[in-house]
Amino acid sequence: MQTTIINAVAPTRICDIGGWTDTRFARSGAVFNIAIYPYVEVQLHSWPPEQTDAHLVIDAENFGDSYSLNPGHIVYNKHPLIEAVIKTMKLPQDIALRINIFAHAPPGASMGTSAAVSVALIGALDALSEGRLPPHDTAALAHSIEIEELGLECGVQDQLASVYGGVNFIEIYDFPHARVSNLTIPDNIWWELEQRLILAYIGKPHYSSDIHKMVIAELGDEPHNDTRLIQLRQLAHQARDALCEGDFITLGRVFNENTQVQRALHKHLVCNDFEAIISLADNFDALGCKVNGAGGDGGSVAILTNGDMQKKRFLQKVLLEQGFQTLPIFLSRLGLRVWKTFSNTPDAGDGK
User: Fold this and answer.
1) Do residues 85 and 121 lie in contact, with contact meaning Cβ atoms separated by under 8 Å?
2) Which residue of 92, 199, 227, 338 sits 20 to 30 Å from the alpha carbon of 52, by its own alpha carbon?
3) What is the pTM of this model?
4) Strand 56-60 relative to strand 96-103: parallel, antiparallel, unpaired?
């Protein structure tokens, strides 16, 4: 039996300078961020429905979950984001599907992994029908599923980074509407940035929607005019200019200032483990540290080292000795990619 296979990969992101200004309560803003590998991978296997009893099987590989769904009656009881995307995309009736989803990043690492899951899954499911969603529409749909279908607090930057890849400058001119500039970075600056970065994961996840609610409660009646959000918007512009000029000293300063504003937004955004990582980075003359995403009591920190690769390796060794993880990363020039292939297989899925 020949099986149609659709593959989709989408990058995650780090170094989101200006994050928090891409939210509904900020109304407008600016974000600089960097799309990276580890990717999220989605693979669809499809075949005629008469050849299997289970018409829709989900393999959430990172969680060890494999289960069947009724395409006509999807409820959000195991993996709501995955299930909401499938419900929204309205699967064709004339095929059976096995959907495998795998993220190379740990869950809740504050790298926009959830957004990359929804972007990759939308891209793969979209390839089942004629026509293709444009990149911006894919990002908008992924975002709307989180805020409208699931009722979560969520900014727009993660989905845009995952769709477009590269180093981005995102201007949110009227939430959720945004313009994306994929920055043109000379190869030598690109390679130097990639070599200097360390991604340190504290070993436990965060829950960004809950963190958003804490911050909203602290911002008062006119959050869009809060001086902290104004400063974050300015820092996004500064990060863009510094990287385009290859000014890593200024970029490191911006990392640090952004993290300082996160501290000022809420006392729980930069937890003790983050502070420990930042202190270790300072001991090895790192230029700056950016707590990724919303922050909180879990997630990751992007460290911009000073270019001394021996010091970088020593820092990585000490981080591991202190119980933190360092995740291998590569900058992703490309965003969402989707392609189709075929396979001859005797198995139409086990329908667990």
Assistant:
1) yes
2) 338
3) 0.93
4) parallel
Residue 281 belongs to a domain with what CATH number? 3.30.230.120
Expressed as residue numbers, the domain containing 263 is 2-344
* Residue 67, beta-bridge partner list: 58
If you search the block for the tokens 């001859």, which residue do you land on?
344
Question: Who contacts 71 (Cβ-Cβ below 8 Å, separation ≥6)?
Answer: 55, 56, 86, 91, 93
Residues 183-201: pLDDT tens digits?
A: 999 999 999 999 999 999 9
* CA gap 323, 319 in Å, rounded: 7
In which order are the strands placed within the sheet that holds 325-327? Answer: 288-291, 300-304, 197-201, 325-327
- Rounded to an integer, what distance in angstroms lies between the CA atom of residue 90 and that of residue 87? 6
- Domain contains 351: no
Element (H, E) at 98: strand 96-103
Cα torsion 32, 36, 40, 42: sign: positive
> Has residue 124 been placed in a domain?
yes
Number of H helices, E strands in the chain: 10, 13
Whether 273 and 279 have beta carbons less than 8 Å apart is answered as no
Q: E-strand spans in 104-239?
A: 167-174, 177-182, 197-201
Within-domain flag for 349 = no
Give the residue from 89, 91, 115 showing the smallest Cα distance to 33. Answer: 115
pLDDT at 184: 97
Residue 352 within any structural domain of the chain: no
Angle, alpha carbons 105-111-115 (nearest 5°)? 95
